[in-house]
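Appendix C reproduces, verbatim, an entry submitted by the partner laboratory led by Prof. M.T., so that reviewers can inspect both the input and the predicted structure.
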Amino acid sequence: MRRRILIAVGAVVVVIGIVFGWYFLTQRHLGHLIAQGKRTNILLLGIDNAGEKKRSDTMMLASLAPDGSVSLLSLPRDLRVKFDGEFHKLNASYALGGPDLSRRVAASLLGVEIPFYIALDYTGFEHLIDAIGGVTITVEKDMRYDDNRATPPLHIDIKAGTQRMDGKTALDYVRFRNDPAGDIGRIARQQKLIKAILAERVQNKDLSTLKKLIQTVYPYLRTDLSLLDLYDLAKLLHGIDESRIAMATVPATPVTIDEISYLEPKVVEMEALVARMIKGIDVLTPADVKVAVFNGNGVRLMATTTADYLKARDFSVTKIGNAESFGYDRTYVVVLTDEKKAELLNSALPQEAEIVTPSEFEPHYSALKDLVPDGTDLILVAGKGFTVGGTASNG
C-alpha cells in the first residue's frame, strides 16, 4: 500500500519471488516478520492490467522455514476456487477485493497463514533485470506472438538458443502466451527465470548493491512491508544456495464448466504438497508407495484386478504375478521399507491384510524375493477370501 501499481504481468511474481524472496527468505529474526521457530509466508502478486478491474495474472507463495530453506509455490491463475459464496477463477480475487482478498483466498485454499503480500509492476521487472546486468536463458524454441489487445500490447520475437536477456526481453519471455501448456507453461518459464537469476548470484552482492536493487524496485511495489523492513532484511542476507530453494506448482486438472475453462485443484495432492513444502510436515500419500502384487489364492486374474484397484487409488504397482503357491489362507502385506506405507496400503484394501516382515514371512519371502523389482516398498499377496470390487475372478 505504498505506491500505485502501474501494469503488472505474470513475470512480476517471479522477480518478487526470487529477489525479495532472498531478502525475506533468509535467516533473520525480526520479530514482526517471523516468530521464533515458525515459518513466514508472503503472497507474491502480479496484476494483469491498469484498469479498474485488475486481476492477478500470477500468484506465488514464498515461504521461509526456520532452517533458512525457501519454498516457492506457484498458484495457477485459472484455479477454480470458492469465495464470497461463488466459484471464481483465482485471479478474480484481486479484482473483487484487492490484495487482502487475494491473500485470504490463497490462505484458505492452501490451509496456511499468509500475513504479508507484495506486488511489482512490469516496469519494475524490467528495471530490476537491467540492474543486475541481465540474465542468461536457454530458449528451447522460437517464440513469436502478437496481441494488440493485451495491456500493454505484446509483440514477441525471441529466437531459440542460449542468450543474454535484458529486462524487456526477459519480460517478453515470461509473458509469452502461444504455449499449448497455457498458464502452466508460463509458470515453468517463471521458475526457469528464477534459476537464471540465482545463477547470477545476486544474493552474494554487497549490501550497498542490494540496497540499490531495493530502491530500484520499490517505486513499483505495492506491499504491506516498509522500505526499512527491506533494508533490515537485506543486511541479514548471507546468500542462499540453489539447493535450498524448492519450487513447485499447485497440481490441478483442466475442466470446463458452463463453457468456462478452469483448473480444478487436486485436493489430496495439493494438501500433501503444502504439508511438505510449506508446513514442513512429511505426509505420506499413495503415490509414494510402490507395491508388488501377487495372486496367492488362485482366483482368476486376481493380481491384475488388484493392481488395477490400487492404481486407481494412486498406488504405484511394480510387479504383477502369481505367488509360488495358491494355498495362502490369508492376505499378507510384506514390509520391505516403511511400515507406515504398509498401514496406508492396508487402509485402502477392501479386506484387511496381515502386515509382516520378510523374516516373519519365510519361507514364502525367499520364494518371491527374486521376482520383486528393486525399489519396491511392499509385497501384497492376495490370499483366501480376498476380493476386489465384489467380483471373484480366478487365476
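The CA atoms of residues 49 and 151 lie 6 Å apart. Additional entries are available on request from the coordinating office.
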